Amino acid sequence: MKYQLVALFDEESHNRIESIQKQVCRRYRLYKSNPSIYIPLSTMVNPNLEKLDMVVSKILNPYKKFKVEITNSIYVNNDHKQVGLIIDEKGYISRISRNILEILSLHGFNLNSMTCENLSSSLKIPMANTNYNVKKASSQSLLTVNKNLLPADYLSVAKINRIELWKLNGNKKDCVIKSFPLKNF
Known about the structure:
single chain, 5 helices, 32% helix, 2'-5' RNA ligase
């Protein structure tokens, strides 16, 4: 089985990103595929869940709730047929992501090859599945959420309040395995 560590937003940030998601889906006529909005941090194949729980708890112990900055750029992944918002890789999110990937690989967890490549690529919020219109538009120019802003400008700031371990299967009811809440400020 595949398991994924994801960073989740607080209620206010979730609602703000959801409105951005609706705006993008409406503009590009996308099918919204993700019922929840999250940032994928790592994907593992058949991990020992007890050992994983212990290691991730130890990694996340010193971290508090933190904020991430969402840029105005839209990422189009043709391999996985997904559209996502790009997150600025500054601060806690990049440090947590890097620490999780390095420490899990040192403890012998079988990380997905996409996760190892994610170490050098940017973090994203997956929003919807792609279609022909988006693929065509993204090949011609960089897609943006707000046309009045530059792609490098910040669209919003969102607050991360917990990290969760999800089981990747078709049934969304049983996907949350463990939640790791972050400390308050």
